[in-house]
Amino acid sequence: MLADRMKLIDASGIRKVFDLAARIKNPINLSIGQPDFDVPDVAKDAAIRAIRDGHNKYTQTQGTGELCRRVADDLKARFGLVDPPVLVTSGVSGGLLLALMATVNPGDEVLIADPYFVMYKHLTRVIGGKPVFIDTYPDFHLTADRIRPHITERTRLLMLNSPCNPSGAVMTQQEIDDILALAAQHDLLVLSDEIYDAFCYDGPHASACGRYDKVLLLKGFSKTYGMTGWRLGYATGPAQVIQAMTMLQQYTFVCAPSMVQAGGLAAMDLGMEEEVAGFAERRDLMYDALKDDFEIVRPSGAFYMFPKAPGGRAEEFVAEAIKNEVLIIPGNVFSERATHFRLCYTVDRDQLLRGAEILCRLARQMR
Ligand SMILES: Cc1ncc(COP(=O)(O)O)c(C=O)c1O
After folding, report:
1. 115 CB near ligand 1 (under 6 Å)
2. 45 lies in a domain?
3. What separation in Å is there between the alpha carbon of 114 and the centre of ligand 1?
4. What is the pLDDT of residue 13?
5. How far apart, in Å, are the Cα atoms of 280 and each of 177, 183, 255?
6. Does residue 33's CB lie within 6 angstroms of at least one atom of ligand 1?
7. Which of 99, 175, 238, 333 has a 20 to 30 Å separation from 217 between CA atoms?
8. How far is CA 147 from CA 134, 151, 244, in A?
């Protein structure tokens, strides 16, 4: 009954943890990859108003005129892009699928930093591409030197993700520029997933946008405005790629939800500094609580940490943690290695401290 491609992917390990979690009454849930703040009222009001005013039909495939113009203005202000082509997508996930469908032929190689966001591997495989993993342990920094040996005749696309899910690593502008220079030498398309750009704690976000003519930028509203359920993002990049993605959107997603586009437009006027500062504090709190008992890199962005499990035995450690009602995700969900685990500091201070105490106790026992 099923197509062969379904054999190339399996159920996300994150789901397995969620299933286990459902059986625990009051877990300390450090597996939630979304902010704990709600959508700002301004955005809610705009979405509700859009519904009431009858904006409930298909929008243009590429997104409403207002939102596309607002995004283009933002791209001009931030990166100096003049009239960039914009496609409003159903989340960055929608953009990723369209981008890979539009650019990767069966058998083409896609360079992916390991550890990686789960979708990169699975979507690449579903469309017939070959994920090629670039190991970035132990510091999780993707550099041109690490990428170079993996480039072959079949390399088509390089994925960047800064800040990174699951490591929280943030790339410097120099690292990005060096990588883009390498990509230019080999005429590679670079897909830069900058969904966590608002969540940078140790300095301004460095972007790949506008620094090489074959950069495809994907940005999202999910994390910045706490609207993961609303499904909104956008893409900009080489006109040919954006046109192809727009055509594919016409035959798949059709358009991003109309009222969500209105809500997202209103959200773009808001500063989220206060919420982001709250995450910076939690990053510090959690890092300080874990650093003596774990091998752990201090993350600079997103809301994840990727510590090494005691003895590098992640599955065993995660099973122990879940038994003790702390939900974390084993690293093999995000990696070809099974040595680390991901935790999200998206819950309140109290739960973070209780969770850290349990994890540290288990780590001391398992050493
Ligand atoms: C790196 C990365 N890219 C994309 C996404 C998907 O985001 P969206 O909700 O915009 O589809 C996520 C969500 O966790 C993510 O971590």
Report:
1. no
2. no
3. 16
4. 64
5. 26, 32, 34
6. yes
7. 333
8. 6, 7, 27
Q: What is the 3-state secondary structure (H, E, C) of 183-206?
A: HHHCCCEEEEECCCCCCECCCCCC
Q: Which amino acid is at 340?
A: H
pLDDT tens readout for residues 23-37: 888 899 999 899 999
Q: What is the pLDDT of residue 45?
A: 98
Whether the pTM exceeds 0.70: the reply is yes
Q: Where are the beta strands (DSSP E) in the chain?
A: 28-29, 86-89, 109-114, 130-135, 155-161, 189-193, 215-220, 233-236, 304-305, 326-327, 329-330, 341-344
Beta pairing partners, 341: 330
Task: Give which of 287, 290, 233 is closest to 257, Cα–Cα.
Answer: 233
The CA angle 28-317-346, to the nearest 5 degrees, is: 30
Quick one: 28 and 86 in the same domain? no
* CB of residue 62 inside a 6 A radius of ligand 1: no
Do 276 and 260 have their domain in common?
no
**Using the 8-state DSSP alphabet, how is residue 247 labeled?**
H
Closest CA to 336 of 17, 168, 113, 84: 113
Count of domains for the chain:
2
Q: Are 259 and 64 in contact (CB under 8 A)?
A: no
Atom of ligand 1 nearest to the CA of 34: 14
Q: Are 256 and 88 in contact (CB under 8 A)?
A: yes
- Do residue 299 and residue 152 come from a single domain? no
**Amino acid type, 262:** A
